[in-house]
Design a protein that fits this description.
By secondary structure, this protein is of the alpha/beta class. It has three domains: 133 residues, Alpha-helical ferredoxin (Fumarate Reductase Iron-sulfur Protein, Chain B, domain 2, Orthogonal Bundle); 168 residues, FAD/NAD(P)-binding domain, CATH 3.50.50; 151 residues, FAD/NAD(P)-binding domain. The protein has 17 helices and 16 strands. The strands form four sheets. Strands 3-2-1-4-16 form a five-stranded parallel beta sheet, with helices on both faces. It has a five-stranded parallel beta sheet with strand order 6-14-7-8-9. Strands 10, 11, 12 and 13 form a four-stranded antiparallel beta sheet that branches.
């Protein structure tokens, strides 16, 4: 760490720097990125707020164990190449996590400054450094590693798969990533809207991995194009990271009416297939006048903000618990409200209503109250006689996803839990030797950074497995 440039007292007097952003009444009509990023001046000032703790808890709060004080100290010293090398050495996809990672509940939640004020804006600084690195890639090229001769197949190019790919390629292994869709990125391209994570950013991060030697093959469905046993026969190890993309529905009357989407289909059409540009793009999407989105997580908030941008006059979040229980990031909820999104809290759908032509006309709901805690959260309880109707012509269901059985059905020796997720040991290895798994297919639907944390830990285990094999063969 560098020597202090200013005193602790002076650091404590610096207020947290605000993220520049598009005005709400402009951004709710376009798909441009909401947050505009720190200027260099703002980044240097925010970096000086870090207290250089002797025991930095922020690192413990990061699922991929980024050395946060080190890269922030290098920013404060205006050593951006050093900060970029430090960050990229710890995090395979920093331009992505700097935009979508819930830092407020992880690294920033552990920041000492947060005890008596606002924590250091770790996420904003991470984004700033990562974006600088994207613009100065030629200055940051690494010496290619010595090839190990080992081949690894990765199923899925989402955050877990790309993390493992980057880490193993850096160690000299030959990595091939198989992606079912026509573009790499997984949930990063089909699930997260352009206004939160521009697809150009994902493409540039993927390109950086390809330049490091990662091979990516799209339009390959493991379970159809190739089976898992076929992959295992042709590679020294396999890592499964195909996510949990099978939508969950409400199971209420009327859910099969025209105008009802799963959030998966809705966001995939808009994000991956660029339906917001129809008819310039080939894929259409229904544009509702009054849109109700059921759910309270980040996916629900993404969907409702997308509906507003597509032209909805009114767009609602319908969530069965209260504001304090909303799983979505606080920043995203704040952005949604400032964009005119309405929140119907303590409200649960009981029926989707329609007309004679089978088109949605409304969502019948019931008010809820919160009872005793169940599985960590207070259980929502219906209030008798409180039914009411939200008039709408489109309903988007965003209440979760589960594991798709397409891959696992072709390999019955893979042990699954009762939810259909793959069971792994402490190394991330499945019941099939040499086959590892991580991300949502193991833990269920979660965040990008948790999937990346799985990937980073499992990459080490795969490397140990491969090198142990080499050591055994040499004896």
């Amino acid at each position: 760490m560098s020597s202090p440039r200013i005193s602790t007292k002076e650091r404590l007097q610096i207020t947290r720097q605000a993220m520049p952003e598009q005005a709400p009444d402009a951004r709710n009509r376009n798909f441009g990125e909401v947050n505009l990023g720190f200027t260099e001046q703002l980044a240097l000032l925010e970096a000086e707020r870090c207290l250089r703790c002797k025991d930095p808890h922020c690192i413990k709060g990061c699922p991929v164990a980024v050395n946060i004080p080190r890269f922030i100290d290098l920013v404060a010293a205006n050593d951006l190449p050093g900060a970029a090398r430090s960050l990229l050495g710890d995090n395979t996809l920093p331009a992505i996590t700097g935009r979508v990672c819930p830092q407020e509940t992880q690294c920033e939640a552990e920041c000492v400054r947060g005890a008596k004020g606002l924590p250091v804006a770790v996420g904003y600084l991470e984004r700033f450094v990562a974006d600088w690195a994207r613009g100065h890639a030629n200055e940051l090229r690494e010496t290619p590693p010595v090839p190990t001769g080992k081949k690894v197949a990765i199923v899925g190019s989402g955050p877990a798969g790309l993390t493992v790919a980057g880490d193993l390629a850096r160690l000299g292994h030959a990595v091939t990533v198989y992606e079912a869709l026509h573009k790499p990125g997984g949930v990063l391209v089909y699930g997260i809207p352009e206004f939160r994570l521009p697809k150009q950013i994902v493409a540039q991060e993927v390109r950086r991995l390809e330049q490091a030697g990662v091979k990516i093959e799209c339009n390959v469905i493991i379970g159809r194009t190739y089976t898992l046993p076929e992959l295992r026969a042709n590679f020294d190890a396999v890592f499964i990271a195909n996510g949990a993309g099978l939508p969950v529905f409400m199971n209420v009357p009327g859910e099969n009416l025209k105008g009802v989407y799963s959030s998966n289909e809705y966001l995939t059409r808009v994000n991956l297939m660029a339906a917001y540009e129809f008819p310039r793009a080939d894929t259409p999407v229904l544009v509702g006048r009054r849109v109700a989105v059921v759910g309270g997580g980040n996916v629900a908030v993404d969907a409702v903000r997308t509906a507003k941008r597509l032209g909805a006059e009114r767009a609602f979040i319908v969530y069965r618990r209260g504001r304090g229980e909303l799983p979505a990031r606080r920043e995203e909820v704040h952005h949604a409200e400032s964009e005119g999104i309405e929140f119907e809290l303590l409200t649960a759908p009981v029926e989707v209503l329609g007309n004679d032509q089978k088109w949605v006309t409304g969502l019948k709901c019931i008010r809820m109250t919160l009872g005793e805690p169940h599985a960590g959260r207070r259980r929502p309880i219906p209030v008798p006689g409180s039914e009411f109707v939200i008039e709408c012509d489109q309903v988007i269901v965003a209440i979760g996803t589960r594991a798709n059985p397409l891959l696992t059905a072709t390999c019955p020796e893979l042990k699954l839990n009762r939810h259909g997720n793959i069971v792994v040991d402490e190394r991330g290895m499945t019941s099939v030797p040499g086959v590892f798994a991580g991300g949502d297919i193991v833990r269920g639907a979660a965040t990008v950074i948790l999937a990346m944390g799985d990937g980073k830990r499992t990459a080490r285990a795969v490397h140990e497995y491969l090198t142990a094999d080499v050591a055994t063969a040499s004896k």
